[in-house]
């Protein structure tokens, strides 16, 4: 479904070129919930963003559903992006629009007629359990509710793929559970393939069937979590699997 082949991305920074992602290859199959895990700065978000070409790689190719996105002109790429929803750590809701109008936004951009928009928005809000909040403004919502609005908005375009960039990093542990449950439900009920960036192994263990471990821009190991015996080889994967409860910054420091 998604094939990343030898992806490379270098940023020009004041301190010189920064190789955020180097030679990263990954195959995500239909129906996967695929985790990308690693410490801060490992290149997870950059790699995730190459899937819909929010970040255009300098090297390598991106295929989705057998089509090479990296070879498409921008106009065609915009159409393909409709089938790829995305949610972010800080929700990125429009604060001057209520919940209903936030979910409506991508449909308006895609010029979906108003009459078609209503049932779609209502069913997306129902899916994330927020039908009763349609008129509320983001400022009145909890972090978990905001993220569920963002999930509903991402679902509005009927995506086949949902990209999640640290979706639980701004919320407390209880709320994390409700967001993960919503993601699992849409994966199971709608068959949406999910790629999720996180630095927490407990998030991976809760919902992912596969995970790739990243370090210094490279994918160092991949695991199929349905296998009975997982034996991490790399020090970073061994560390992540051992410390799955909470990976706080001081733990990162102790690893380094
Ligand atoms: N637009 C940019 N310009 C310059 N450097 C960037 C840019 N985006 C990312 N980087 C750098 O690339 C490296 C990888 O960043 P990335 O956000 O992909 O890592 P990450 O694993 O997702 O970490 P985090 O959890 O902190 O977001 C980091 O050193 C980051 O500072």
Description:
- This protein has a six-stranded mixed β-sheet with strand order 6-7-8-3-9-10, sandwiched between helices.
- It has helices at 44-51, 74-81, 99-109, 114-127, 143-156, 173-190, 201-207, 235-242, 249-255, and strands at residues 2-13, 16-28, 33-37, 59-64, 67-68, 84-87, 161-165, 193-198, 210-215, 218-224.
- The protein contains nine helices and ten strands.
- The protein is 37% helix and 26% strand.
- It has 256 residues and is an alpha/beta fold.
- The protein has two domains: 1-83 and 166-256, 3-Layer(aba) Sandwich (Rossmann fold); 88-158, no CATH class.
- Helix 3 runs parallel beside helix 5 (143-156), helix 4 (114-127) crosses helix 5 and helix 5 packs parallel to helix 6.
- Mean pLDDT is 91; it is low at 245-256.
- It is globular and about 50 Å long.
- Adenosine-5'-triphosphate binds at residues 11, 13, 18, 20, 38, 40-46, 197, 199.
């Amino acid at each position: 479904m998604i094939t990343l082949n030898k992806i490379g991305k270098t940023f020009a920074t004041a301190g010189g070129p920064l190789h955020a992602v180097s030679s990263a290859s990954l195959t995500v199959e239909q129906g996967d919930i695929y985790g990308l895990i690693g410490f801060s700065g490992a290149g997870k978000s950059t790699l995730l963003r190459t899937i819909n070409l929010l970040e255009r790689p300098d090297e390598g190719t991106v295929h989705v559903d057998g089509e090479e996105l990296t070879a498409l002109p921008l106009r065609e790429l915009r159409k393909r992006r409709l089938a790829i929803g995305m949610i972010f750590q800080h929700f990125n809701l429009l604060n001057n629009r209520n919940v209903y109008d936030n979910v409506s936004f991508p449909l308006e951009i895609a010029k979906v007629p108003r009459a078609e928009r209503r049932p779609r928005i209502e069913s997306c809000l129902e899916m994330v359990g927020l039908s009763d909040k349609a008129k509320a403004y983001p400022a009145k919502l909890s972090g978990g509710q905001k993220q569920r609005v963002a999930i509903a908005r991402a679902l509005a375009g009927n995506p086949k793929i949902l990209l999640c960039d640290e979706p639980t990093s701004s919320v407390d542990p209880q709320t994390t559970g409700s967001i993960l449950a919503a993601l699992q439900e849409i994966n199971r009920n709608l068959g949406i393939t999910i790629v999720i960036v996180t630095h927490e192994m407990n998030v991976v263990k809760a919902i992912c069937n596969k995970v790739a471990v990243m370090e210094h821009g490279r994918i160092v190991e991949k695991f199929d979590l349905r296998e009975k015996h997982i034996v991490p080889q790399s020090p970073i994967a061994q560390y992540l699997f051992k410390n799955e409860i909470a990976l706080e910054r001081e733990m990162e420091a102790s690893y380094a």
